[in-house]
Amino acid sequence: MRKLILFLFIISAMSFIACTKNEPAGNINISGKDSLMAEVEMRLQEKRRLDKLRINLKNSRTGRSIEKYKPIIKKYAKRYGFDWRLIVAQIAQESSFKEKARSRVGAKGLMQLMPLTAKEISRELDIKYIMKSPRENITAGIYHLKKQMRYFPDSKPIDRTRLALASYNAGPGRVFDAQEIAGFYKKSENKWPTVRPYLAMLKKSDWELHLQVWPNGQPKYGYFYGSEETINYVDQIWKTYLVYKEIL
Predict the structure, then answer these.
(1) Contact at 8 Å (CB) between 47 and 22?
(2) Of 94, 136, 180, 189, catalytic
(3) Of the N and C termini of the chain, which has fewer Cβ atoms inside 10 Å?
(4) Which of 200, 182, 190 is nearest to 158 (CA)?
């Protein structure tokens, strides 16, 4: 910290000298100096904030769980092309790193996989204890997220990842239907921010819109009432991920 402050002070002093070198006596550029010092202080405050978050995470149960599972998360995140900190953020959202977590619909484990999904992945990866072993659950969950990525090949990496997260949570069909509505409104079907609001337009009460989008007047993959949960899921993971990128 001392070295950082000294460095910033030197930069500040050099900038100040440069600004005032050709100034007549009594006409020093005070506003420029104040602006630079304000920027330095702002950066120091941000560093202190991140340091505090880093310490708090390290001393928390979540932080200890991250350290425990970091090797396997990193291994399979790298294998399937993800930043391992994204997977950490997803696990934090899915289960808060509770190994025996179980949802009201029967999803289990750190990555909250449904029994049928686990059974399918078990055959594909030749692993047997996805619903019982935390490490196999992580392996299967990362693989499952990779599978969701394949549904959105035309999206840029950031949007592709967020669309895949939505698909992981709600199923790809819901995202496909929202994409069709986006297309109907001549909005990009490959960007999360434009597809995001249309997840909320898949309810039965939106039947007038559905009549314009689909010949039979219904979303291809059925009505959907969990849009708020899915949108929050994606947005919260992304928000946490951006913080983890700074402190992990």
Answers:
(1) no
(2) 94
(3) N
(4) 190
pTM of the model: 0.83
Residue 180 is among the residues annotated as catalytic for this protein: no
Q: What is the mean predicted confidence (pLDDT) over 34-46?
A: 81
Query: What average pLDDT does the chain have?
Result: 89
Residue 161 confidence (pLDDT) above 90 = yes
- Which residue bears the tokens 């909320």? 200
Q: What are phi and psi of 108, to 5 degrees?
A: -130, 155
Quick check: 184 and 213 in contact, CB under 8 A? yes
Could you give all domains of the chain from N- to C-terminal order, each with its CATH number? Answer: 34-149 (1.10.530.10), 153-248 (no CATH)
* DSSP-assigned beta bridge partners for residue 46: none
Please choose, from the candidates 141, 137, 132, the residue with its C-alpha nearest in 3D space to the C-alpha of residue 165.
141
Determine how many CB atoms are found less than 10 A away from the CB of residue 76: 21
Residue 203 burial class via C-beta count within 10 angstroms: exposed 0-12, middle 13-18, buried 19 and up: middle
Chain segment 227-238, per-residue pLDDT in tens: 999 999 999 999
Chain centroid to Cα 149, Å, comes to 14
Check residue 30 and give its pLDDT.
62
